[in-house]
């Protein structure tokens, strides 16, 4: 899996931090990680997500109140907690 953090919203939209962000190839600056993983590689992105995935999701939600987050997927970073419901 390439995405390290995926936010699923009530309207069915999915927003993710993936290779374009952590490898620094995507120019999109509004990533769900808030730019913390930008250009640092997958290993660093996984560490960042493990340390602060909920804060990343909350900050993104504050910027995008029109998209209600209903779940957070952490891909390959926290064993046993790949899908966390966001309240």
Could you explain the architecture of this structure?
This protein is an alpha+beta fold. The chain has one domain. Helix content is 31%, strand content 20%. Strands 2-1-3-4 form a 4-stranded antiparallel sheet.
Topology:
Blueprint: E1 5-9, E2 14-17, H1 19-22, H2 41-63, E3 69-73, E4 83-85
Antiparallel strand pairs: 1-2, 1-3, 3-4
Outline:
The protein is of the alpha+beta class and 87 residues long. It has helices at residues 19-22, 41-63, and strands at residues 5-9, 14-17, 69-73, 83-85. A four-stranded antiparallel sheet has the order 2-1-3-4.
Number of structural units classed as domains: 1
Secondary-structure element series: EEHHEE
Overall body shape = globular
| Secondary structural class | alpha+beta
Average residue-wise pLDDT: 84
- Measured between the Cα atoms of the first and last residue, the distance is 25 Å
Question: What attributes does this structure have?
Answer:
alpha+beta; 4-stranded antiparallel sheet; 87 residues; 4 strands; 20% strand
């Amino acid at each position: 899996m390439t995405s390290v953090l995926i936010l699923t919203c009530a309207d069915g939209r999915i927003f993710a931090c993936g290779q374009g962000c952590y490898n620094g190839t995507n120019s999109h600056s509004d990533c769900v990680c808030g730019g913390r993983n930008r250009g640092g590689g997958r290993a660093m992105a996984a560490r960042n997500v493990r340390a602060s995935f909920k804060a990343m999701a909350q900050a993104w939600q504050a910027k995008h109140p029109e998209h209600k987050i209903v779940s957070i997927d952490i891909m390959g970073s926290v064993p046993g907690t790949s899908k966390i419901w966001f309240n």
